[in-house]
Amino acid sequence: QPVGESYAAEAWAHGVRVEPEALSRSFREAYGAQSRRFPNYGRGQGLSSQQWWVDVVKQTFRLSGVHEDRVLTLIAENLYRDFCSARNWEVLPGASETLSQCCQRGFRMGVVSNFDNRLENILSQCNLRHHFEFILTSEDVGFAKPDGRIFEKALRLSGVPPELAAHVGDDYTRDYKAARAVGMHGFLLRAAGQGTEPEVPPEHILPMLSHLLALIEK
Predict the structure, then answer these.
(1) Which of the residues 36, 70, 115, 131 could staple to 119 if both were Cys, CB 3.0 to 4.6 A apart?
(2) What is the CATH number of domain 3-83?
(3) What is the number of other CB atoms lying within 10 angstroms of the CB of residue 184?
(4) CATH for 95-214, among 3.40.720.10, 3.40.50.1000, 3.40.190.10, 3.90.550.10?
(5) Residue 134 · residue 111 · CB < 8 Å
(6) What does the chain look like in DSSP terms, one character per residue?
(7) What is the pLDDT of residues 86-106, one digit of tens each?
(8) Which domain of life is it from (predicted)?
C-alpha cells in the first residue's frame, strides 16, 4: 500500500490522526532532503540506516503537523521494524515462478539494490531469498546505482563477464542505462501504460517479469 497509508495506520494506532495524502507528500519531501544531505543512508557520515530512516519518518510527521517527539520516536521505530516484514511488500505476479525457472536453467542470480541492509531479511520473509546467490545493497557496498562500481562488484561475485550478464530493473537511469554502461545487457520492467524512454528498444521492455525468459533465450 502507499507509504502514506502505512504511516497513517501506524500513527492511528498511537492515537494520532493524519491524512495519508498529507503524509505521502511530506514523505517525498523528507526523503528527498535526507537523501541529499546524507546520501546512501548516511553510510559515510556516521549514521546507521536505522537512524537515517527514523529521522525521515519523524520529519515526515513534523511536516504534516505532528510534533510530539516521544510518540514520533515510537511510530518511527515501529515502522522501521514493520518494513522488514512481508506484510508491507508485494511480490510481483509471476516473480517466484520466473526466478525458479531461471534457477532451473542454471543462471547465477543476485540482487543489486539501492536499499539498506534489511533487504536480505525482507526477501526471506517474502520467500524469495533462496533464488539468489548474493544480495548487494548500496548500504553494504558504499556505492549506489547508477554508480558502475556496484554493478562491477556484482559481476565479480558472480564470476560472469558483463557481456553474459543481464540486469532487470524498473528505473531507466539507475537500472537500465547504468547496467548497459558497464557492458551488461539491460531490461526495463514497465507495466502497460507506464510509458518509457524513446532510447529503449521495445525488445528491452518487460511488461511483466514472466516475459524475461523468452527475451534472454533469444
Answers:
(1) 115
(2) 1.10.150.720
(3) 22
(4) 3.40.50.1000
(5) yes
(6) --HHHHHHHHHHHTT----HHHHHHHHHHHHHHHHHHSTGGGGGGT--HHHHHHHHHHHHHHHTT---HHHHHHHHHHHHHHTTSGGG--PPTTHHHHHHHHHHTT---EEEES--TTHHHHHHHTT-GGG-SEEEEHHHHS--TT-HHHHHHHHHHHT--GGG-EEEES-IIIIIIHHHHTT-EEEEE--TTS---TTS-GGGEESSGGGHHHHHT-
(7) 888 889 888 999 999 999 999
(8) Eukaryota
**pLDDT over 70, % of the chain:** 97
